[in-house]
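Z., the sequence and structure:
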Amino acid sequence: VSWLFNPARSEITSLDSGNIDDILNNADVALVNFYADWCRFSQMLHPIFEEASNVIKEEYPDKNQVVFARVDCDQHSDIAQRYRISKYPTLKLFRNGMMMKREYRGQRSVTAIADYIRQQKSNPIREVQDLEEINSLDRSRRNIVGYFEQKDSDNYRTFERVANILHDDCVFLSAFGAVSKAERFSGDNVIYKPPGENAPDMVYLGSLTNFDLIYAWTQDKCVPLVREITFENGEELTEEGLPFLILFHMKDDLESLEKFQQEVARQLISEKGTINFLHADCDKFRHPLLHIQKTPADCPVIAIDSFRHMYVFPDFSDLSVPGKLKQFVLDLHSGKLHREFHHGPDPTDIAPGQPVQDVASSPPESSFQKLAPSEHRYTLLREKDEL
């Protein structure tokens, strides 16, 4: 079927350490194919990727609107490592040089890839024609509303750039001119409306043209500090490359979840970026619980998954003890949890006269390991996807 494709017309850009930053930083949207020549699925994707590029190029002729690019990961292992590529082929989306956390996981077909790019190019912001629309927002969602004097402004362009990146995490709305005037008593304005009918609004107080500031503020509002892990997003969370601190709780046990969220915010905000804070449904994740000798009847349970082992927080009732949860995380970083997992408590942690308990020489590994990058696993997944 290769004659059906016309790779001679393709606009695939080969990336290397010398050109990658310049090309990606100047592209509104870039779809990058990380591949390996020895991988048969990479070989199968090449003509499809090239034809999808041809289709999109007809619709977006400006070379910086959409870029289709590729990286030979065998030749450029430094780039593969930089973007944590652990399977081939992997399709990653970039906006103005920033890699989106969700990789492309759709069908490997010309139509599906072209539709995905069209979706990425669609406007992520809904324009409000009457402020009454704001009163009827879905308050189960996280909403970011921008009030601007005019659309053709640096303030709005920065807001639009942020919305393009975070539209999967928040609903973005905007109002202009006379419609927005009542909300612009001190100039253009951006408001966060958190979930909950009675939750108070939060106002962005920084510069509206400073992308880094407004992006950091919006990301903080749109991406919860404690996220839910599911079977659907487990692989995606794993690919972020950070260990998990997980609260296992029954779905209707919101009290334990609220306590966990409060203590994570109180004790561990400085650890954001070194560990992912998650919560999981005990009923759905019975298998990981079994690996730490727990059942749903034991929930709520807190554990760390390092992708090598799972470590259990001794007692949920100690959650509110000042510094206890933070020390648990610090013990992961220092290697203490791993050491004690294999060799028992450190001598300094044993009370006088207390016997040292025997520890199994090869304890069970983390059952979340099935979500972690694994060449064998991803080969099986890819075969399943392509059949």
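The first strand starts at residue 12 and ends at 14. Residues 78 and 280 are 34 Å apart (CA to CA).

Let me know what you think.
H.
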